[in-house]
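Protocol step 4 of 6: record predicted structures for both targets in the notebook before any analysis. Target 1:
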Amino acid sequence: MDDFRLDSRLESDSLPVCDLPLCQVRLMNDARFPWLVLIPRRPGIREVFELSSSDQVQLWHEATEVGRVMKDATQGDKLNLATLGNVVAQLHLHVIVRKTDDAAWPAPVWGHGEARSYDLEGQAAMRDLVLAQIQGLDLG
């Protein structure tokens, strides 16, 4: 894990939240959606199948558990989990809580309108919410 480096695009488009056993958790800087990105802290990984079997299981466990508690906490209608990597090759998994009245519903969030950056208060509130939800999870 010492050689892990975060892609510069992920770093500029998102805000740090915490580290889980496998993944770094970051908040996408778009206040229109409760949107996290999980990045496995493994160097040089571009695809899920490049992770070890145990890391694949851990990635899915972290994503589904974080998604579940975030969906409940934000009273979401649907949870979207996605790996694309067409722009940023480094493996990262989007965890997006969707609501039927959100700005992009029912279309994907990508390329829909202009991102609305968090102000400092909103960023702190969402980070605190995420941390509070993750705190009680057994992700080890």
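Target 2:
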Amino acid sequence: MTSTAPRGRQPGRVRWWTYLLLCAATAACLFPLYWMFIVATTDTATATKMPPEIVPGGNFFHLVGLVLETVPFVQSLLNSLVVATAIGVGQAVLCALAGFAFAKLRFRGRNALFVIVVLTMTVPTQLSVIPQYMIMSELGWVDTLQALIVPGLASAFGIFWMRQHISATISDELMQAARIDGASTGQVFWRIAFPIVRPAAFVLGLFGFVTAWNDFLWPFIVLKSPERYTAQIAIKALQNSYDVDLGLAMSGSFLATIPLVVLFVLVGRRMVAGILEGAFKG
């Protein structure tokens, strides 16, 4: 049997230009973060001059001190952590429950209801702001963190994601065997289905966490008190109506980005593995 690989090239060997392209792509992705740090160590005049500075300045800790004096930034980071964690965990669990129901349970109107859920993804988020605010006002939740958490505990995309993953990974025969052994629907989900789809639910939870952490529009509308600001609203509060201190704003932005960088370093490999597992099984 003859090999079809070109002569002089080992099978599976990566060429040098592949590494060059990967390094270039990595540099392009990291440059905005590096430029943010450069501006966070200088003033507005230095940040806007041409040619631009490529070496960090020495004002970072001074600007960080100004950030902490101007707004309760540490409390804002904690608020963002609480909101993002609750939404991430909620989406991982609730969307998995809904996806399991749509994928494996038989009930009247299942397909029509799933179509409605999918169609809600076509509705712009801005259209739901007014009715959502009216609901929060009736509940007395304006200027509270639960006004941010409760609307984000489930998403149409998350339900669709988990429904497709459960359909592809959990066979009907496995569920029938569990029911023959006397397992209820809840036991089938928690003891069989959820452990199998846990990587996909983990990835969905991470997506929900990052989305909630970076959300600006809804927190900006519903939050009024500085002690309840999230990180993104605290960054907006660093800018006045007439002038923008780029160094101050970028210092706050850099501080708000650090938790996401740490999160990716800690769970990045598991996140990629969960995405690839869903891609191969779906």
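Step 5 preliminary note on target 2. The radius of gyration is 24 Å. Residues 119 and 162 are 16 Å apart (CA to CA).
Proceed to step 6 after PI sign-off.
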